[in-house]
Amino acid sequence: MSTNRVIQSIDRADPEVITGLRNAGVATVHEAYGRRGLMDPGIRPIQIDHAVAGSAVTVLCPPGDNMMIHAAVEVVQEGDLLIVTTTSPSTDGMFGDLLATSLMAQGGVGLVIEAGVRDTSTLRSMGFPVWSRAIHAQGTVKATAGSVNVPIVCAGVAVEPGDVVVADDDGVVVVSRSDASATLEGSNSRLEKETATREKLESGELSLDFYGFRGRLEDLGVSWVDNQEDP
After folding, report:
1. Residue 226 falls within a domain, yes or no?
2. What is the value of pTM for the model shown?
3. Residues 194, 211: contact at Cβ < 8 Å?
4. DSSP labels for 159-206?
5. pLDDT digits (tens, 9 = 90+) for 127-169
6. Cβ atoms of 86 and 63 closer than 8 Å
7. CB-side exposure of 33: number of CA atoms within 13 Å?
8. Handedness of CA 219, 225, 229, 231 (dihedral sign)
9. Residue 8: inside a domain
10. What CATH number should be reported for the domain holding residue 157?
11. Handedness of CA 85, 90, 94, 95 (dihedral sign)
12. Is residue 213 part of a domain?
């Protein structure tokens, strides 16, 4: 059996759960998920003020070769998010506006790629959101096989096909499909607490006091004095 495969059918999380995680945002989801699943900060958005979440369609490519991205488009369904990595480091521009056009036609909502992208101005004008390792005009070949919908590691995070990927201005976080519902519950709980905290801050209360940080600082030996001359 070939080790290079295109797996056409994957399990996906509940669309309402995916939407809820998108609305919660990367920072909140990351905290609610036990501070797991966050891709390294080298994966950056090429645009601002875009937030997406979707089911991961994973792609494993040789460096500088984007043929498997073309193969992946066929299995993308409405709401999927393409997650691409390479078998060794690459910054080549493996994705551009034509592939984005094809993905959008199949219902794809975005791309996370541990390599380069190009045609970034056009991608932004199309409204197709991308998070990438690099922006690089260097082209690619179509010569070597890879795989679609297999387990991968992208930017330091293990990704299984069908995992929920949340991406916004703060980065990219991956939540296991089996943990998605519980993580949404935790995210909503955190958002409720943040609303109460925001109300306290708006009323003039100090976080130093209502979080108990003042006493903790005193225990650590910090003292409050009027000026530099005070002992």
Report:
1. no
2. 0.94
3. no
4. E-TT-EEEEETTEEEEE-GGGHHHHHHHHHHHHHHHHHHHHHHHTT--
5. 999 999 999 999 999 999 999 999 999 999 999 999 999 999 9
6. yes
7. 25
8. negative
9. no
10. 3.50.30.40
11. positive
12. no
Note the pLDDT tens digit of each residue in 53-64. Answer: 999 999 999 999
40 Cα distance to chain centroid:
10
Q: Which domain holds residue 45?
A: 15-186
State residue 229's pLDDT score. Answer: 74
* Alpha helix stretches (DSSP H) within the chain: 15-24, 26-32, 67-73, 97-106, 120-126, 180-202, 207-210, 213-219
Count of structural domains, the chain:
1
| Distance in angstroms between the alpha carbons of the first and the last residue of the chain | 77
Positions of the chain with pLDDT lower than 50, given as ranges:
none
Structure tokens belonging to residue 169: 């201005």
pLDDT of residue 1: 52
* Residue keyed to tokens 């499909």: 177
Residue 96 lies in a domain: yes
| Token pair belonging to 178 | 């089996």
